[in-house]
Backbone:
């Protein structure tokens, strides 16, 4: 499956970014087991990658990391202490998840608690061709930095996938291709940005002004989708920029820019 | 559709550049939004009448004071009318200037404060242009500069802008003489 397809490697659709994760976590305190499992699955689908990579970086092998990743999401939903710590007025969702994960692993280390919380019917298979690739890019990083790095790349992956899908759904394939060639690929692959004229020739666009407008349209779309995505993790819109800056700062401490 | 690239193994600078795609345009959109917000706020403020003098209302029983306040709001000319009418009494213009200071002190946002400042300078401009009176201790040079800065703002309404420009010319003449 291609990187920017609509499915994650553990299955499930990525439709929309509507729900706030704080409310999901608090909702998860419900006694309704079906609802609780739905929430756990949703959290797992969205955040397993940074959690899994963090655990791997802590020294656990692939199988242990997969089991612990799933057990962790059950734990944050079931364990009332962790939920109580999830005071959204005091921090951001990403920070909460990382702190909770750290506490959880300390707990596991002390008491092998993970085994007690194995869900009935077993875990969702955390299989995917990208697992080994996920863990090879983090040399020199601390577990916290790995978590934030994967969090950032996962956010960008999801945003890019969503923008591409929006373009496809609205008949803007050429818009996407021009935006991709002129903006995304030069950044992601460290290659030179092609001229607008070259893009007009390649995609049969009438003139450079039209190509430029296409890029602006998708840039706006990219920004909107990115802000929608990040909005879920902050208390107010004004914090979105801070969240990005803090995220990049924590990563750059362990990785040369 | 194109899709060969990957975010895996990108460095911080690459991540930063991706996170900031479109942020420059967003700023201009936000700026445009703020301009519209201020223009709207100024327009609404100018369409309100100047409230009765609070110091007089405060001595009335609260129920009567509220009634006077309501009557005052209904009966008075709007701020826009006061500012555009050359015959507006200088006392009313001074009261408008005082009112704009209150608005500024109570402002809950930059937009509200900016609008209050615009009304403040518009009242000074009215006194200069129509009454040949300077109702502030600010120098003509400083006033001319302030009027010029305000006129540049896109959210300033046309009527207020005309008044500020005229006051600017007045100050320039006075400062030169």
Residues:
């Amino acid at each position: 499956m291609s990187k920017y397809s609509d499915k994650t490697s553990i299955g499930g659709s990525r439709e929309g970014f509507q729900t706030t994760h704080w409310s999901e976590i608090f909702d998860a305190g419900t006694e309704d087991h079906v609802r609780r499992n739905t929430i756990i699955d949703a959290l797992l689908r969205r955040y397993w990658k940074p959690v899994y990579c963090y655990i791997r970086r802590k020294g656990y092998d692939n199988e242990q990391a997969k089991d612990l990743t799933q057990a962790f999401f059950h734990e944050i939903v079931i364990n009332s202490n962790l939920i109580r710590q999830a005071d959204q007025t005091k921090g951001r969702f990403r920070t909460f998840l990382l702190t909770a994960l750290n506490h959880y692993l300390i707990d596991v280390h002390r008491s092998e608690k993970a085994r007690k919380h194995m869900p009935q019917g077993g875990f969702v298979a955390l299989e995917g061709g990208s697992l080994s690739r996920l863990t090879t890019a983090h040399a020199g990083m601390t577990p916290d930095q790995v978590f934030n790095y994967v969090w950032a790349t996962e956010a960008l992956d999801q945003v890019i996938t969503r923008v591409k899908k929006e373009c496809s759904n609205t008949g803007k394939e050429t818009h996407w291709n021009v935006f991709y060639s002129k903006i995304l690929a030069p950044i992601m692959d460290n290659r030179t940005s092609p001229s607008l004229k070259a893009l007009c020739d390649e995609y049969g666009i009438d003139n450079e002004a039209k190509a430029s407008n296409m890029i602006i349209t998708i840039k706006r779309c990219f920004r909107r989708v990115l802000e929608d995505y990040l909005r879920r993790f902050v208390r107010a819109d004004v914090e979105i920029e801070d969240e990005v800056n803090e995220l990049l700062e924590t990563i750059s401490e362990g990785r040369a820019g | 559709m194109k899709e060969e690239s990957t975010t895996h193994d990108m460095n911080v600078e690459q991540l930063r550049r991706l996170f900031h795609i479109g942020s420059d345009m967003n700023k201009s959109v936000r700026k445009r939004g703020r301009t519209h917000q201020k223009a709207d706020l100024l327009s609404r403020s100018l369409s309100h009448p100047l409230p009765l003098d609070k110091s007089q209302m405060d001595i009335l029983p609260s129920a009567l004071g509220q009634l006077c306040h309501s009557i005052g709001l209904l009966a008075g000319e709007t701020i826009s009318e006061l500012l555009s009418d050359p015959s507006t009494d200088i006392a009313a213009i001074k009261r408008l200037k005082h009112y704009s200071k209150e608005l500024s002190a109570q402002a809950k946002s930059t937009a509200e404060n900016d609008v209050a400042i615009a009304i403040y300078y518009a009242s000074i401009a009215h006194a200069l242009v129509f009454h040949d009176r300077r109702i502030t201790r600010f120098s003509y040079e400083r006033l001319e500069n302030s009027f010029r800065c305000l006129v540049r703002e896109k959210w300033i309404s046309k009527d207020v802008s005309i008044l500020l420009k005229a006051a600017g010319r007045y100050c320039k003449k006075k400062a030169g003489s």
